[in-house]
Design brief:
about 375 residues, 3-stranded antiparallel beta sheet, two-stranded antiparallel sheet, globular
């Protein structure tokens, strides 16, 4: 094994994350101030909570950045067990919001176990593949164990219900398995086998079927099932090249639902225009480039696979969110990493950045 060299953490990755988080603070306030004033009497309500998440996330990033990432390989199974426990706990004692049990009230903020589960899944697949790289070509020995672990995560998240997060986790797992050396033919077969299952899951829940139908033709029911995507497209379209100006969104006045979470990218398009949206996409591309570059230069297989997983975790979710907001994908209910309101997501994403920065300090 080649000798390990230490260097400064990846500056461009850190800058990309910092800019995305900073933009997120601005846009969370802009998108939520009207709703926050109407609901709580405080236009800064959501901004304050997001700043608390940013503070906790920054602390987590700085601490994790100093911890040798190779420690996580030894606790991969423990991490999965803890994540399973939290996902089961949220079904029992979780706070129900809009018909879903996704959060555990900790007083200071609501913990979302599915966010922590993403890191646990990524760490497990990286540790599993790094310990038996040759076996990844074998379907039963290399693919089945991580697929079973992923399947349990998907099932538990689906019970909340949170179909979008489940899809994001499966997508991340597939990217990781490909990077870990799984045969493309095996992954294609799995994808084909998953199509009927997804069809059944969609058919079993009327609201999922409504989302598919509204995706195919939102104007068929513009005042009900097609409302979200129509309002999102109106927001993006009205922004033009330069946008209406920061804070000047019209759609945030109770036209566009979830404007500070799932559909915050539409507010970015409306207020900052095509150029602002392009800047956000560019920052995510920069993050992806640096993250995968860290993976390619990691000093060991575990570091390589872990960097691929964390980078994919963030980029897959960002792609799903932007795809939904722009009408390219059906509504899935996932947020935009670093930018959307949500303390758990922000803390986990910044902790993931800390792991990437630690890996970047050790190169071959």
């Amino acid at each position: 094994m080649s000798r390990e060299t230490y260097r400064m953490p990846d500056l461009l990755l850190f800058v990309a994350a910092l800019l995305l988080v900073s933009l997120g603070l601005v846009m969370v306030y802009s998108a939520s101030s009207v709703m926050a004033l109407a609901e709580t009497g405080d236009p800064l309500y959501y901004l304050k909570r997001q700043m608390m998440g940013m503070t906790l996330g920054t602390i987590a990033m700085l601490v994790v950045m100093q911890i040798d990432y190779r420690i996580y390989q030894r606790v991969a199974i423990l991490g999965v067990a803890a994540a399973y426990g939290l996902l089961i706990a949220v079904l029992v004692v979780g706070t129900e919001i809009s018909g879903s049990r996704r959060w555990i009230d900790l007083g200071v903020f609501n913990l979302q176990p599915s966010e922590l589960s993403k890191l646990a899944l990524v760490n497990f697949i990286a540790a599993f593949a790094a310990s038996r790289p040759q076996a990844m070509k074998n379907f039963w020995k290399g693919l089945v164990p991580p697929l079973l672990v992923t399947g349990v995560f998907f099932a538990l998240v689906l019970l909340e219900p949170d179909f979008g997060t489940g899809v994001s986790m499966v997508g991340t797992a597939m990217v990781m398995l490909f990077a870990c050396g799984a045969k493309v033919s095996h992954l294609v077969i799995l994808a084909l086998m998953a199509i009927p299952l997804l069809g059944v899951l969609i058919w079993l829940e009327p609201y999922r079927m409504e989302r598919i139908l509204s995706f195919l033709d939102p104007w068929a029911d513009p005042m009900n099932t097609g409302w979200n995507i129509i309002q999102s497209l109106l927001a993006i379209g009205s922004g033009g090249l330069f946008g209406l100006g920061l804070g000047s969104s019209r759609q945030k006045f109770f036209y566009l639902p979830e404007q500070h979470t799932d559909f915050i990218f539409a507010i970015i398009g409306e207020e900052l225009g095509f150029l602002g949206s392009l800047a956000v996409l560019s920052l995510f591309f920069l993050f992806a480039w640096r993250g995968f570059r860290i993976a390619m230069r990691a000093s060991d297989l575990f570091g390589c696979f872990l960097a691929v997983g964390i980078t994919s975790m963030i980029i897959v979710q960002a792609a799903l969110n932007i795809g939904v907001v722009s009408g390219v994908l059906p509504v899935t209910g996932v947020t935009l990493p670093f930018i959307s309101f949500g303390s758990s997501s922000l803390v986990v994403s910044l902790a993931g950045v800390g792991v990437l920065l630690n890996i970047s300090k050790r190169i071959r």
